Amino acid sequence: MAPAIRFTAIGLHVVVSTHAIFLVLAVVAGTLVAVRRAREPLAMLGVAPCAAVLALASSHLLFRTQHGGPAGLWSGGLSSMGGIAGVALAIPLAAPNSRRRRADLADALAPAAILALAIGRIGCFLGGCCYGRPTALPWGVVFPELGPPARHPLQLYSAGLDLLLARALLRSSGPPGVVAARACLGLGVVRFLLEFLRDPAASDPLGAGGLTQAQGGALLLITGGLLTWAQAGRRRALPVPWPAPSPASRRSR
């Protein structure tokens, strides 16, 4: 793959991580989409970058919790489920006292976050992490760091499905919170199924049940999505109280 770009500038040999480049592109693209979808674009200009920072920090914290690493150093490891938790944490922090505003923020941030995940997965492919199981399919990829056999390009599967999901979400609408609920459901199902193609050496087991930690997080996403969707449907179905007649209208009878 291409884990780094190397070039010489002003006599200096520069090495730039391709994964880092795609992370930056993911944050920029996600911010632009969130601002465009937001009911309050100016407010989202502040919320989206903060959500991105929380997502990256939570993603790295979860990775470090799972795998350890040198204390006080950024090792480059990220966990997507930690990033999703970071975005979820940013929403109540940005709107602590308004359920409606939290739902609006979630509807704007959810498609943006999934688009950012898709872009970040391309960086994972170039960096050679998050690889799939060995396969004899003609599109299998041999990762230079691992050597033969060819493997499922799981990162590209994930990127493609996330892009399709983001596109569908950007075209969907509904009561406040429904777009975010659909995002949780779609992402949860995609991640749960794709984990079966992931190489065990690149995944983290969840107890002795045969599932991975990512699949555990996916089940939480699916559950949260179903509950949020049902809650949004109940709010929509609530009867609108008939306005009481004014004193003037009563006198005119």
Provide a descriptive summary of the structure in words.
By secondary structure, the protein is mostly helical. It has a domain of 160 residues. A hairpin with a 2-residue loop joins strand 1 and strand 2.
What is the fold's blueprint, element by element?
Blueprint: E1 4-9, E2 12-17, H1 18-37, H2 41-67, H3 80-94, H4 99-127, H5 154-170, H6 178-194, H7 213-237, H8 247-251
Antiparallel strand pairs: 1-2
Helix pairs in contact: 1-2, 1-4, 2-3, 3-4, 4-5, 4-6, 5-6, 6-7
Kindly estimate the percentage of residues that lie in beta strands according to DSSP. Answer: under 5%
Structural class by SSE content: mainly alpha
Q: How many E strands? A: 2
Could you list the spans in which at least 5 consecutive residues all have pLDDT below 50?
238-244, 246-253
Number of helices: 8
Radius of gyration: 22 Å
- Tell me the span between the first and last alpha carbons: 82 Å
- Indicate the overall shape: globular
Average pLDDT, to the nearest integer? Answer: 83
Features:
mainly alpha; 5% strand; 253 residues; 8 helices
Overview in brief:
The protein has 253 residues and is mainly α. The protein contains eight helices and two strands, in the order E-E-H-H-H-H-H-H-H-H.
